[in-house]
Amino acid sequence: MKIRISFASFLKCLVLLCALGASSKRAEAQQATLIDNIVAKVGGHIILRSELEFQHANATSQGYKSPNLRCDILRSLVQNKLLLARAEVDSVIVEEGTINAELEGRLNQFIAQIGSQERLEEYYNKSMSEIRNDLRRSLREQLTVQKMEREIAGQMKVTPKEVQQYFNRIPKDSLPYFSTEVEVGQIVKIAQIGTAQKQAAREQLEGIRKRILAGEDFATLARQYSQDPGSGAEGGVLGFFKKRELVPEYEAAALKLQPGETSPVIESMFGYHIIQLLERRGEEFNTRHILIKPATAQVDMEQTAHLLDSIRNLIQTDSISFAKAAKDFSDDMASKGNGGMITLPNSPTTYIPIDKLDPSIFFVIDTMKVGSISAPLPYRTEDGKEALRIMYLKSKTPPHQANMRDDYQKIAAAALSDKRNKAINEWFDKNKDTVFIDIVPEFSTCSLDD
């Protein structure tokens, strides 16, 4: 049996455990005797034994069974590395803004999940700057592979006939049983920061800058005042970056500096910065910064609530559909293009098992009737911004065995995924000889053929 463990699934585990050097004490003990080495080379990319073993443990825990499971996983890893190698040849590049936005969202999510920046550093036994750098590299690979896969699969679609054929191929005794599922939408409005709040943040940073120019230590003040969860505890140090790896405003200001020089106050999407250039090394530069974010005042939240109430009234009086309102007004980029509907990570369907809902959503929709919309509720975005949102319960499906009537969307998504995977596998078979691939003798019996 051939399995294709997606790169996205691997990166989900890689980011949480492998790339950040974080694994449980039991896993650390199990791997303590493992001497890591290279098991395959694909162009300029390598696959480590630890990657293969971690994937194997992850697949086993998810119930994958195959007499050649390690070979199946190795093929999947080789395929992903080939996609990366060909992306370099074909100049497939992910925009730095996309990487930066994903990076900040993930970091804030990790910090929120574990409780604090200090606990995150303790858990991974790394500084925030090291965690940030590891995560950036992982995300760059993940997003590049995803972009390559989209280019290979193109605008692929499935017809109703193909969906039915896919469903008919599933053995009746293998049809999944779905628990209670819901479709939930949201319209998010980020509280707008007023001029007074922006001016206060700028003035605070101007005062800090004057203290630095007067001789106080930049790193000490960064630890005391910086609101960057990644670098503040490290004295503001971000580490070495290449051009176009940081937001444009930050990079432009940093590259104008001489080593040891401190920039004027600059504004970026994250807030206000002062920057000190530490060192240049070829095309790379190392900086530290102090970040101050404008505070959100209560009046802004009240105005946001009033706006959301107005949108809610328009929907309830049928003046506008929820989907159109989400598209026109929501500040949540992930859901506004999907009619405001929330999906699980890496899931194309809007149906969410109720036991997988975020608790903050579950306790709201648990008392709602299908078709109703909540009052504005406090919300914090993944990047830490204060916001409000209204929730919409579109549907609620009782537990049942998969069928075409109730689960067409999920079955169609699975059929489309299967079709895309076949296209990517065909691409791999056609292109695997265009890049040098070397596998160690231990795995020489593993076939790269699908």
TrEMBL record:
Domain PpiC per the UniProt entry, residue ranges: 179-279, 282-392
KW NAD (keyword) present: no
PROSITE patterns: PPIC_PPIASE_1, PPIC_PPIASE_2
GO terms assigned for molecular function: peptidyl-prolyl cis-trans isomerase activity
Signal peptide (residue range): 1-29
Gene3D superfamilies, alphabetized: 3.10.50.40, Porin chaperone SurA, peptide-binding domain (1.10.4030.10)
InterPro entries named among the record's database cross-references: OMP_Chaperone_SurA, PPIase_dom_sf, PPIase_PpiC, PPIase_PpiC_CS, Trigger_fact/SurA_dom_sf
Assigned keywords, A-Z: Isomerase, Rotamase, Signal
Source organism, top-level taxon: Bacteria
PANTHER family: CHAPERONE SURA
Protein name: Peptidylprolyl isomerase
Provenance organism: Rufibacter immobilis
